[in-house]
Amino acid sequence: MAEKSKETKTVDSSRRGFLSKSAVGAGAALTGTMLGAINNSAKADGDPIPLGGGMPMTGWAAADGIEFKRAQEMACDEINALGGILGRPLKPVVEDTGNQGADNIIPAMQRLVDRHGVHAIINGYNTGAVTAEYDVIADAGIIYVHHNTDIVHHETVGNDPERHFGNFMGDPAEYWYGEGLLAFLNGLVDTAQWSPDNRKIAIVTGSQNYSMVIAEAIRDNAAKYNWDISLFETVVVPISEWGPTLTKIRNDPPAAIAVTHWVPQDLAQFMLQFVPNPTNSLVYMQYGPSLAAFREVGQDSTNGVLYSTVIASLQDEIGQAFNNRYKERFGPSSSPLVGAQVYDSIHYWALAAAIAGGTAGPGGFDQNRKVAERLRRMIYRGVMGTTHFFLPEQAAIPYPDATNDPSLGMPHQYLQIQDFTDEPEMIAPPPYETAKFAMPPWFK
After folding, report:
1. InterPro entries of this UniProt entry (predicted)?
2. Do the beta carbons of residue 413 and residue 312 sit within 8 Å?
């Protein structure tokens, strides 16, 4: 195995330097300076365009909400420095979605429309409304780009694309975590990086819909990828005592363990209780390992754990340039990996709006349909890789799960904790990987 490297090439981290590397267009790569060219050197001194965000500024997801708001401000400042949208500056506004759920999300979206007259709503994730907020957007005739990672989006928009012309999901659905994992495991085998003792996968899930969708996608597609399911266990969460589940795993050791519950402290307890008496199994966990709390609680028992994300800034030149600028602006403890989703989406919406001849507020159906059509045709290379949408569902296409072309899909990134005192290493997919897969230290 090649020795891992964290070196990155020198990059141009200026705004225009980054934008000149962005790729957008209808089946063609056009530079990000296109926005400046369309603006024809205009200054952003026209009537402001209110751009909304329904973000959890309080409640359990407030830490992420802060990053969404930071990214909103940063993207708007950069776009305004290029002349805004046809000379009109963006004015960011936020309404708090709190602890989320339909009772909090829908009123926040309605306030953005009624109180602020926003032309678009672009934010990170909100959970619990199950696309109910889409009706607010459809009734207003504006654009909505969210990152809810929810397969229900496909059904809602796909079944009525005319009504939901303005509703876009800027990341792939959670479903792809499931089938993508099976392809990833086969890739490790096919490239001789891993020789499993058998073809069994043990699945452990919480009862939340997010976790269940991923777990069921693994189970239902396992045979297609030549895997058997040795255990499908649903646990009551939160959970700190994993003894009964680990006993079942140890009684029938699988080649891989997939834990689709996501709370980092719970997952850290799993590893603390697994490692003293491990099986020769790869351990894949959902979301939790991406958070510092997982490594802080689990310490060296987390070394070797695998996880993935369908939405985060990359560790390539473009991604690192953004990460550096973001931390320079908001401090070393800020999280550009979280902010990236809002940042990219505001940039490609602004470009689509400029190409379409401008944007419109509530009731501006005709103009916003033009913006939506530009988004539907767009191929945008940003800090997270490529954004390109499934049609008619208007959800981001994942690479390599749904396309073999990295220029046409958002990379489903696989990472591994190889040293809990350092940042996780990105080990797939090519050409974005920055390190090699390492066999977990608990293997005998």
Report:
1. BCAA_transport, Leu-bd, Peripla_BP_I, TAT_signal, TAT_signal_bac_arc
2. yes
| Domain co-membership, 135 together with 244 | no
Q: Which two tokens stand for residue 254?
A: 């699988």
3-class DSSP string for 386-409 = EECECCCCCEECEECCCCCCHHHC
pTM for this model (two decimals):
0.89
DSSP string, 231-258: EEEE--SS----HHHHHHHHHS--SEEE
Confidence band (pLDDT; 50, 70, 90) for 33?
Answer: low
CATH of the domain at 227: 3.40.50.2300
Banded model confidence at residue 30, pLDDT cuts 50, 70, 90:
very low
Q: Reduce the DSSP state of residue 437 to 3 states and report it.
A: coil
CB hemisphere CA count around 257 (13 angstroms): 26
What gap in Å lies between CA 270 and CA 291, rounded to an integer? 15
- Contact by Cβ (8 Å): 44, 88: yes
Examine the domain organization and report whether 295 and 379 are in the same domain.
no
- Taking phi first (over 0 means left), then psi (-120 to 50 degrees means alpha), and beta for anything else, what does residue 208 get? beta
Which phi and psi (to 5°) does residue 201 adopt? Answer: -125, 130
Contact 344, 384 (CB under 8 A): yes
Distance in angstroms (rounded) separating the CA atoms of residues 185 and 188: 5
CA distance from start to end of the chain: 19
